[in-house]
Amino acid sequence: MERDTDWIRPVVILVLLAAPAIGVRIASHFSDDPHLQPLAISSERGASASGGRVESGLAMVEVDVDWGQDWTGRMSRVELRDAIARSLSSQTDLYRVRFREAPGARIGVSFRVGPNVFGPYPPGGMRDGIHSALVALDITNRSKR
């Protein structure tokens, strides 16, 4: 007889653990408040997904890549964009990458957060710029919250 009811205790525990998150999710659905969404889309991701319009007043990391018109290296624009996106998306969703044509055969990557500009860096040395931009983004957005 005990074997038939062994599943009840784990199910009750799971329901009790999930109830607060489910309750908050239901409340966020009916109130349209993005700050109530547990483990879901945050207000920062919503600002990033708004096509560059920062609706919540948060700063963004704007990455400007000056792509040399005479560039003959092995790295393509897609590869560079993917490398930048991988580095930044692991820390924030508040970024935008833009490519601009530039004279010469060099690539320069600049990072802008509000009035702060870091770079230009060559593609191989942009790790310092990414770190500086993320620190500036954190400080800038922390003061706005």
Automatic annotation (TrEMBL):
This is Uncharacterized protein.
